[in-house]
Amino acid sequence: MGRVEGKVAFVTGAARGQGRSHAVRLAEEGADIIAVDICRDIDTIGYSLATPEDLEETAKFVEKTGRRAVTAQADVRDAGQLREALERGLEEFGKVDIVVAQAGIAGMKGQPPLQAWTDGINTNFVGTINAIQVALPHLKEGASIIATASAAALMDASKKDNPGSDPGGMGYMTSKRLISQYMHDLATQLAVRNIRANVIHPTNCNTPMLQSEPMYRSFRPDLDKPTRADAELAFGVQQAMPVPYIEPEDISNAVLWLASDESRFVTGMQLRVDAGGYLKWYDYHV
C-alpha cells in the first residue's frame, strides 16, 4: 500500500517544475491525479511557461507509475476554468481528497511593471484561492489542502530602499504572504470538519522559474547580462546550509507527508523547506 493509496489529488501548475514533481510523487504512492496548467505564456513574465506538451508528459509520467491522470489546460486566475477542470476529474475519479495549489509565477522585472504586479497577485494568490475554493464543496473528512508559498513570504521586507522599482518582484512576495494568512484562517475553519490545510515555504528551487533571465538579474543587479553561473554565485545568500538551491523532489516529499495520514493531526502549519534560510533572518521565537 502506498502512503496515499486510493486517493485523488488535484494539482495546479502540474505541467513541469514543482507541480509535475508533486503529481508524480503522489502517483508513486498510489494517488490518481487531476493535473492542471495554463500551458501558455503570460506577457509580463520574462521567461517561458509550460506548454501543452509538458502537461501531456506529466500525464505519461503519472501513468508509468500505474495510476491514472486527467489533464486540463486552465488558467488559475479564472475560477470557472478551474471548476470545469476539476469536474472533468470528478467525472473520471468520483472524488477529490488532496488539493495541491502549486501554480505560481515570478514577475521580477516584469513589463509593464504594474501589470506584472497584477498578474503575480492574480496567479499566485487569487489562483491559490480559486483552486482551493472550487474543491471545497467536494472535500470530505480526512482531506488535505496544501498550498505553496515561498521563503520570500517570511523575509523581512520592512526596509524599502527603492520603493516602486520592481512591482512584479514585490507582487511575488506579497502574494506569498497573503497565501500564508489565508491558509492559516482557512485551516481554523476546516479543523472542526477534520479537513487539514497547510502551507509549504520553499527556498530557491531548481526549476525554470529560478533558472531564468529575470531571476538572474534579480540576484546579480551588478551585472548587465548575468548568466546562470553568475547568479549561482549569489543563490546561496538565501540559505543557511551551503547550497544554492533545493530540488523539486525535496518539496514533493513534504507534500506527500502532508497529503498522507502520517500527518493526520498536522494543520495550520507553515512548513519551511528552506535549507535554513529562515534562521538567517530571525532570532528564536515561539
Number of helix segments? 9
The CATH topology comes to Rossmann fold
Q: Spell out the CATH superfamily.
A: NAD(P)-binding Rossmann-like Domain
End-to-end CA span? 37 Å
Series of H and E elements: EHEHEHEHEHEHHHEH
Helical content (DSSP H or I, runs of 4+): 40-55%
Low-confidence spans: pLDDT under 50, at least 5 residues? none
List the helices and strands and how they pair.
Blueprint: E1 8-12, H1 17-28, E2 32-37, H2 52-64, E3 69-73, H3 79-93, E4 98-101, H4 113-135, E5 144-148, H5 167-191, E6 196-202, H6 213-219, H7 228-235, H8 248-259, E7 270-273, H9 277-281
Parallel strand pairs: 1-2, 1-4, 2-3, 4-5, 5-6, 6-7
GO molecular function: oxidoreductase activity
Keywords: NAD, Oxidoreductase
Family: Belongs to the short-chain dehydrogenases/reductases (SDR) family.
What does the model show?
- The chain has 286 residues and is α/β, with parallel strands linked by helices.
- The chain has one domain (8-207, 247-273): Rossmann fold.
- The chain is built from nine helices and seven strands, in the order E-H-E-H-E-H-E-H-E-H-E-H-H-H-E-H.
- It has helices at 17-28, 52-64, 79-93, 113-135, 167-191, 213-219, 228-235, 248-259, 277-281; strands at 8-12, 32-37, 69-73, 98-101, 144-148, 196-202, 270-273.
- A seven-stranded parallel sheet has the order 3-2-1-4-5-6-7, with helices on both faces.
- Helix 1 packs across helix 8 (248-259).
- The mean pLDDT is 96.
- One of its GO terms (molecular function) is oxidoreductase activity.
